[in-house]
Design brief:
Strand content: under 5%
Order of helices and strands: HHHHHEHEHH
Number of helices: 8
Distance between the termini: 74 Å
Largest sheet: 2 strands, antiparallel
Shape: globular
Radius of gyration: 25 Å
Helix content: 55-70%
Strand order of the largest sheet: 1-2
Structural class: mainly alpha
Number of strands: 2
């Protein structure tokens, strides 16, 4: 290699190191300029991660449903806001601490709990990774119940009575 080629290679390496120190955004933008073919492939993942991390949900029924829908989408669990909301209103009137102490499940020692009135064995069997193991946690309760409904009925949207 000529001396000129060695100098260009050394300058390119120094530029890449400096850009990496300046920050990922600058390095990603500059990498195509110095011939890195994989820099553009890293851009969507970085943008997706930043967007996901920045998403916040209100601590209310609307926020719980929306967060559950996002988790469900990541795991391929079907359901719509309307179907989830309709079932929550029928099952618990939107109270995440609701518990049924009078039906056959309660008589058998496993009362229905939470927004979608899930019994513990069903919650544990249909728990979705990334959510709490607490059946009273609104997002975990919705997501597990929707996972169960998807397995049993195709979707929470197909549930119009106690399930």
């Amino acid at each position: 290699m000529s001396a000129n080629g060695q100098n260009r290679h050394a300058r390119t390496g120094r530029l890449a190191r400096k850009l990496a120190l300046a920050g990922t955004g600058a390095a990603v933008l500059a990498m195509p300029l110095i011939g890195a073919a994989t820099a553009s492939a890293a851009t969507p993942a970085a943008a997706t991660t930043a967007t996901t991390a920045a998403t916040t949900y209100p601590d209310n029924l609307d926020g719980w449903i929306r967060e559950s829908l996002d988790i469900m989408a990541q795991h391929g669990i079907p359901g719509t806001y309307e179907g989830i909301h309709r079932n929550i209103m029928r099952e618990s009137s939107g109270n995440p601490l609701a518990i049924n102490n009078w039906d056959i499940n309660a008589i058998n020692g496993t009362p229905s709990k939470g927004l979608l009135q899930v019994i513990d064995p069903t919650f544990q069997a249909y728990h979705v990774e990334g959510t709490s193991w607490d059946p009273y946690d609104p997002v975990a309760n919705i997501t597990a119940a929707c996972n169960y409904a998807a397995d049993r009925y195709g979707s929470m949207d197909n549930v119009f009575s106690a399930y």
